[in-house]
Amino acid sequence: MRIAVIGFGTAGEGRLHAYRTVTAGRVVAVLDPSPERRARARQLDPGLATYPTLAELLAAQPVDAVDICTPPNHHVELEREALAAGLHVICEKPVAVRTDEALDLIDLARDRGLLLYPAHNYGFSPMMRVLTGAVAGGRLGGPLRARFRIARDSHARGVPGWQPDWRRDISVARGGIMLDHGTHCAYMATQLFGEAPRTVSCVAQWADGDATAGMDVAARLDLEFGDAGTCEIDLSWVSDTRSNRYLVSGPDGAADVHDGMAEVRTADGLERTDLAPPNRDQTHQEWFPGMFADFAGLVAAGTGWDRPMREVVTTTALIEAAYRSATRGGEPVVPAGLSAAEAR
């Protein structure tokens, strides 16, 4: 499969390296409006063609799919352009910010017979394998209670030369930590519970105390899954520590992943596993082969596409509901879009 990577910042450069670890796809072109970033791509791989726009690529050479790694404000327009041109799409999170955007993109993909695939790489992480393995077969019992804690002392910075702090610019990022780290937590929770939450409640801390600017720097989300249980998510860009913790518990045991160390306690005893990767690369290249194998396998099979495309909608709807709840002082909100997605 011939792939064009769109956006050659931190994520795009990491993706170029990651594609070298798979056999089913190869990067044949890189798109970026920055001459400096295009030069960087050619430095890393002199055989790559580089272009400033998708239109120029499409006029010059054939590709089968695009992998969109730009900041969020460009995602929807590039997804529409690529799907309209007959290309399968992988897109970094968030695939969309509004549920209506997500539903329209899914409709376009289905009409064109193409796959729109979310690059939800945490779903292919070692920590997620531990959590899903613990939940599978009812090993923890039910209902479940999940608690996710993501603490940072700042946002992740972009590449020098192009707005390194774009994550703090609402016009580019389209949201703050809820849209950034929260998106990962949203689809992880939905996968673990096997369904979308019934309601979402959220309180947020806003940059400069200004909720109208829309830049959240910390948030607490509570997801209610009915009889299945609950999930509590704490996110912060203003913590004095850096840590990650994912805890899922039930009446029969618990799975706890804390900064790369996993412990699973069940009736069978205690399992402890060190999940720390050999490198600390923030693009998580080691998770990519599993994700791309899933994407390529779905494209080849031509079936099973509802799963990733439904996840696009449920994730978008969950985060949109969290923002709506935060502006209402934490009032529970029913995520929109799931019933509409099923009806389509």
TrEMBL record:
Name recorded for this polypeptide: Dehydrogenase
Entry-linked Gene3D superfamilies: Dihydrodipicolinate Reductase, domain 2, NAD(P)-binding Rossmann-like Domain
InterPro entries reported for this sequence: Gfo/Idh/MocA-like_OxRdtase_N (IPR000683), Gfo/Idh/MocA_oxidoreduct (IPR051317), GFO_IDH_MocA-like_dom (IPR055170), NAD(P)-bd_dom_sf (IPR036291)
Superkingdom of the organism of origin: Bacteria
Pfam families: GFO_IDH_MocA, GFO_IDH_MocA_C3
Domain Gfo/Idh/MocA-like oxidoreductase N-terminal: residue ranges: 1-119
Domain GFO/IDH/MocA-like oxidoreductase: 134-254
